[in-house]
Amino acid sequence: MTANRYTYPEAAEKLRVKERWLRRNIKGLPHSKKGEVVTFSDADLDAIDAMFHHTPVTGPLAIAAAPSAGAHPLAHLKPLPGRSSLRRA
Predict the structure, then answer these.
(1) How many domains does the chain fold into?
(2) Which residue range(s) make up the domain with 37?
(3) Residue 63 and residue 61: Cα distance in Å, rounded?
(4) Residue 42 and residue 82: Cα distance in Å, rounded?
(5) Which residues make Cβ contacts (< 8 Å) with residue 30, sequence separation at least 6?
C-alpha cells in the first residue's frame, strides 16, 4: 500500500497556503521527517486543514442551539447598540 507523500511546495499548493507559512509553523503541524526530509501525507493535510477550520459561534451563519420548549424562537437575539453610542464626542 503506497500512501501519497507531499513535499513542502506540493503540500502548500494542496492547502492553498504559502510554502513559507508551512516552514514557519512546522513544529505545530503533523508531518513526517526522515533525516532532513519533511513530507506530508493526505492524513497530515486533512489534520492541518481541520486544525484551522472555523465554525462561527455568533452571527447569521452560526449554528444555533435549539430553543427550549416554550421559549420564543428569537429570544436568544440581542439588540444592536443604538446610534447614539456610535456618535463621536
Answers:
(1) 1
(2) 1-52
(3) 6
(4) 50
(5) 40, 43, 44, 47, 48
Per the structure block, which three cell numbers stand in for 43?
Answer: 492524513
**From first to last of its 89 residues, what are the pLDDT tens digits of the chain?**
568 999 999 999 999 999 999 999 999 999 999 999 999 999 999 999 999 988 777 777 676 665 567 777 777 777 777 777 566 55
Please state, in angstroms and as integers, the Cα–Cα distance from residue 51 to each residue in 12, 22, 89, following that order.
15, 13, 43
Provide the β-strand partners of residue 32.
39
Structural domain includes residue 10: yes
Cα angle for residues 16, 20, 21 (degrees, 5° grid): 60
Q: Distance between alpha carbon 32 and the CA centroid of its chain, in Å?
A: 22
- pTM check: above 0.70: no
